[in-house]
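Technical appendix A lists one of the benchmark inputs used to test multi-chain prediction within the project. The record comprises four sequence entries:
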Amino acid sequence: MQLSKSFDYAIRSLVHLAMLPPGKGADLRAISISQNVPVSYLAKVMRHLVRGGVVSSTLGRDGGYSLRKAPDQVTLLQVYEIMEGELRLVECMQSDGSCAFFNGCTQATVWVRLRAAVEGIFRETTLADLLPKGGNGPVQTAINKEGGYARAGA
Amino acid sequence: MQLSKSFDYAIRSLVHLAMLPPGKGADLRAISISQNVPVSYLAKVMRHLVRGGVVSSTLGRDGGYSLRKAPDQVTLLQVYEIMEGELRLVECMQSDGSCAFFNGCTQATVWVRLRAAVEGIFRETTLADLLPKGGNGPVQTAINKEGGYARAGA
DNA sequence: TAAATGTGGAGTAGATATGTCCACATTTAC
DNA sequence: GTAAATGTGGACATATCTACTCCACATTTA
């Protein structure tokens, strides 16, 4: 029961974009460096986010990505569903009837409670909640593999 | 973000044992049939539960498994930890410092909330909560692959 | 002593997650 | 107009995990 790196990368990237001055964007390489994610893999993640409608991309020189919505209009549930599809905690809770058990399945109530709890948190949490406190400070930094600091947009 | 079948199988098997008359047990084959789980795989699951201390096993003819605790003394959290180890939702929340980010990781608060919610539900829910209502009724049944009914202990 | 059980661990097939690569279309700077 | 900088699309590769199988063996009881 673990969240995927893709989902984690997606959120980090979106937060990165949300911290930029309004109207500004960032390109793949900048996001990749600041979030310590392989460029080629991040490209795939960003494509999901573009298709999912939360990010817009511009081609060509000086192109890149920017948020299409205000940070408080993007919930983690949206991001989850873009990256992973419908939130489902057990295979047998699918609608395709793959569960061999009767309505009397005793576990169902727990799975439902669990799903509701997770979905609730995802639905309540927006990118705005993930922005570092204290206003638009400097872009979040990560320690790169050499032990130094990587700056976004370097 | 999905729970494993092992966990699901473990719970079903424990509930099966919990529904038997006190002092009675069930053998692999009986559990396997009633829960529609491959015997050889279930054997592995049960070994986990035995080592985890929630189930006792007896060898030899007429051997089998039985619960070591009252159903309301076995929480889903215990079962989860026996089957899957420590509850962790993201790799980077490990204690081994594999996360490359500073304390300022903005997502950490969400992961903590999420973990707390899941853990809370698992901790509050015991096998007793999963027993079918209406007392010790007949053992839970499943539809087997032939479309008929499988009875526990058949 | 034979049959019925659980034990232990190696092995396997398939799925999924993660990551790489390259040819290509688009845009902008010069 | 051309070259460089970007994102796009998809095939490919790799690693890890899940679910499951199999078999030799120890133990117990009829």
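Confidence is low (pLDDT under 50) at residues 135-154 of chain A. The radius of gyration of chain A is 18 Å. Comparable benchmark entries are summarised in Table A2.
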